[in-house]
Design goal:
- The chain is α/β, with parallel strands linked by helices and 283 residues long.
- Helix content is 48%, strand content 14%.
Length: 283
């Protein structure tokens, strides 16, 4: 299989009332686990990686690994740069063959954010690559998450309308009370704001910080325009907990054995999110 532009997956999800989960991956084992479970669940999927994961493998190596693993499977999938922090990172991922990119300038002034994303669209569109922007700022609720900042800033509908018109982004990450990391309490989403954003933006919307979102919140958010949901912290937690448990018991001290068992916990999280988002059985 070949990786597809993310918009091909996201538009169908938006039209059909479900969301495509985007899972953080960092090596061949996590890539294989996500694609295997996607194949078993007959679900479209996005693989995402960014600054933290590129510390293990540069974009060109990550993309080559993903393409090699993907040859074993036949599911609609995209390879996505998540929370790109610079134009250089975007360029590296475009050159490596990513099929979707995000430049996150949400903490910068509106004019700078819009100008930068317009440039990304100009670079990506001739290559058939999908572009995600973020408006407002999605914070984080713990210190484990590699993304987000201490505080959040809700997305303004009027700015969202102008931003999409000025930049031409294919999808928009919004801030409605969601946050990166694992929630310490029940999150409060502003669903009225989300409904306004759906009408204002006119493009599929993205929910960052999917981990730990209550199922009823997720269903309602999808009904109001969320067509992509990012999942990272739950995957990280599942793998870390499995390894720590094995090592505390004096088991699987040979790291590959430990990781093999940890991928079972990883797969369970992936399968759960295909069900929660309604993506399972869509193929």
């Amino acid at each position: 299989m070949k990786f597809l532009p993310a918009v091909e997956l996201i538009r169908d999800a938006a039209a059909s009332g479900y969301a495509v989960p985007s899972f953080c991956v960092w090596d061949s084992s996590t890539i294989d686990t996500v694609l295997r479970v996607a194949s078993d669940c007959r679900a479209p999927v996005m693989l995402m990686c960014g600054r933290a994961e590129f510390g293990l493998a540069a974009p060109v190596a990550m993309a080559a690994t993903a393409r090699a693993v993907a040859q074993r499977y036949d599911v609609p999938a995209a390879l996505h740069l998540d929370h790109g922090t610079s134009m250089e990172a975007v360029h590296d991922c475009l050159a490596a063959g990513f099929t979707s990119v995000m430049l996150d300038y949400s903490r910068r002034p509106y004019a700078e954010n819009a100008a930068a994303l317009r440039e990304v669209v100009e670079r990506a569109r001739p290559k058939g690559v999908t572009v995600e922007g973020e408006l407002g700022a999605v914070g984080r609720v713990d210190e484990t998450s590699a993304e987000g900042s201490v505080g959040s800033e809700l997305t303004d509908p009027d700015e969202a309308r102008a931003y999409v018109e000025e930049t031409g982004v294919d999808m928009l990450a919004v801030s409605i009370g969601n946050a990166h990391g694992l929630y310490k309490g029940r999150p409060e989403f502003d669903f009225g704001l989300l409904a306004e954003l759906r009408g204002a933006a006119g493009v599929p919307l993205v929910l960052h910080g999917g981990s730990g979102t209550p199922e009823e919140h997720l269903r309602r958010a999808i009904s109001l325009g969320i067509a992509k949901v990012n999942v990272a912290s739950e995957l990280n937690q599942a793998v870390r907990a499995s390894l720590c448990d094995q090592w505390d018991r004096g088991e699987a001290l040979w790291v590959p054995f430990g990781l093999t068992h940890a991928m079972e916990a990883h797969a369970a999280v992936v399968e759960k999110w295909f069900r929660l988002t309604g993506a399972a059985g869509r193929l």
